[in-house]
Amino acid sequence: MTAFKMGRGIGGHHSARFNSCEWYTPPEIVHALGEFDLDPCSPAGYHQFWTAQKHFTEKEDGFVQKWKGRVWLNPPYGPDTWKWLWKLYEHGNGIALIFARTETKGFFRCVWNKADAIFFFYGRLSFINSNGDRSTHNSGGPSCLVAYGENNVYALKESGLKGKLVYLSPGM
Fold it and tell me: Looking at residue 116, what is its pLDDT?
């Protein structure tokens, strides 16, 4: 893991109506992408059993654990987002759900210059609350799915999700 400091987090200039950095993924998104082996950022209070076969919560610190297989990553939205994205890039097999903050240093470093593809959602997502209900508010910003590995690019292409897939040439 290459250490780096990116400054403000992915939501650093954004004010959402949530009091937590745990935003639970709508299950239809994960189901559209196929099976995942690991979710290293699973919420402690409300497990997203629809995301992957294995889950790490904050208590197990999924960041320091060894990742195996295809990873679903909905990282904490805040200052640590980019370190999680960098680890997924190094792992090389997974899809991350993040804000589409395309102009930020972290996005350039971890997505534009490293990912294989980005899927931009049409409209804004409404995440799941801690009680399991869909939030009455949208996320407050545009979201995207970031693919690392050709198998994950294919999963985005075949997902049927509403939006636009952009193929990248990492390192360009």
Answer: 97
53 and 38 in contact (C-beta within 8 Å)?
yes
Confidence of residue 57 (pLDDT cuts 50, 70, 90): confident
CA distances from 105 to 17, 39, 51, 110, 111 (A): 25, 25, 28, 9, 10
> Do residues 70 and 37 make contact, with C-beta atoms less than 8 angstroms apart?
yes
What are 92's two structure tokens? 């090389």
Residues 6+ apart with CB under 8 A from 110: 82, 85, 86, 89, 146
**Which of 33-37, 38-42, 73-77, 99-103 is predicted most confidently?**
33-37
Based on the number of CB atoms within 10 Å of its own CB, is 135 exposed (0-12), middle (13-18) or buried (19 or more)? middle
Distance CA 136, CA 127 (A): 9
pLDDT of amino acid 10: 39
The gap between the terminal CA atoms of the chain, to the nearest Å, is 21
